[in-house]
Amino acid sequence: MANKLTWLPSLKGRSLMRLTSFTDEEMMNLIDLAAQLKARRRAGVRGELLHRKNIALIFEKSSTRTRNSSLIAVQDEGGNAEYLTRPDIHFGKKESVKDTARVLGRIYDGILFRGFAQKSVEELREFSGVPVWNGLTDDYHPTQILADLLTVKETFGSLDNTTMAYVGDGRNNVANSLMMGCAKAGVNYVCCTPRELWPDEAILAEAEAVAKKNGVEIKVFDDPKKGVKGANVLYTDVWVSMGEEAKTAERIKLLRPYQINMDLMTATGNLDGKLMFLHCLPAFHDFNTDVTKECGALEVTDEVFESKYSKVFDESENRMHTIKALFVSALSDPSLA
Ligand code: CP
Ligand code: NVA
Asked: Atom 6 of ligand 2 has which residue's CA nearest to it?
């Protein structure tokens, strides 16, 4: 029955700082819970799993998907969320992160944070006493990857025998988390990126150890055409992440050869087989943004973005179901399922 959860994994009180906050099994359970919650919502059910729960959404950086997914995830299940930006609260200016954590932890049942320093989200977790979820920092974007893995799983039916090729800025927050997410999920990961943007050695080594344990591989290439050969998922992100705007010209020059276009999709050798395109969004794929109104597409062409391979709006919708799974598993009483 779509409106009844068959099972609710208990991650009561648990926070998400990075994907390593959960065991591989716990991460996969969250993805399965998100699939159940998605089916349930599609059947028209708005439940009570978060009845009267209050969640603070602290955002230092902009957001369309993460903010709205979090808000609606809570409201769908009978709870409330408060959106707090830098001008709204004293966070890190007139009041330390530690003090803010201790204040908000006495008011709210959980805190989702998006911002700059990974240290901030970790301090919120340490001092608030409530579950804290990382909605993106300069270093990691773990909630994104839960949605990505759900999208691959529901599109292909399974994550087995899958190779994900990430093409672009190989050391940004999304790439760091995607590499670990693939390793934990048993998906081969190929990073196609120039030497200047090679993944951090420690982060790479940590993911390689997990991949090895799960029988899959991580490879890094600077030649995108070689790297994507045999890939089933081509994934990219913006070339300039929030907070790095001063590097725009340099990045565009460096990453031009890494654009995902039909030539690169063809280089997978899988155009007629198992192949999809993913992007965490927002994407510069046309002339319709302030950044691209003169130069046109950057990390992905409009042709690929609008093609039958593109699952970006399924992926974007899945942000909400996976964030809901995080909130529900940490805050709900399993007997409510
Ligand atoms: N993918 C993602 O995190 O999007 P937002 O920046 O809109 O939240
Ligand atoms: N790497 C991007 C992700 C946006 C969702 C950024 O940090 O801006």
From this structure: 241
Per residue in 229-288, pLDDT (tens digit) is 999 999 999 999 999 999 999 999 999 999 999 999 999 999 999 999 999 999 999 878
Give the distance (Å) from ligand 1 centre to CA of residue 65. Answer: 5
Three-state SS sequence of the chain: CCCCCCCCCCCCCCCECCHHHCCHHHHHHHHHHHHHHHHHHHCCCCCCCCCCCEEEEEECCCCCHHHHHHHHHHHHCCCEEEEEECCCCCECCCECHHHHHHHHHHHCCEEEEECCCHHHHHHHHHHHCCCEEECCCCCCCHHHHHHHHHHHHHHHCCCCCCEEEEECCCCCHHHHHHHHHHHHHCCEEEEECCHHHCCCHHHHHHHHHHHHHCCCCEEEECCHHHHCCCCCEEEECCCCCCCCHHHHHHHHHHHHHHCECHHHHHHCCCCCCCCEEEECCCCCCCCCCCCCCCCCCCCECHHHHCCCCECHHHHHHHHHHHHHHHHHHHHCCHHHC
66 in contact with ligand 1, CB cutoff 6 A: yes
How far, in Å, from the CA of 236 to the mean position of ligand 2?
Answer: 11
d(CA 174, ligand 2 centre) in Å? 7
Residues 152-182 have pLDDT tens digits of 999 999 999 999 999 999 999 999 999 999 9
Instruction: Give the catalytic positions in this structure.
Output: 114, 141, 144, 237, 280, 319
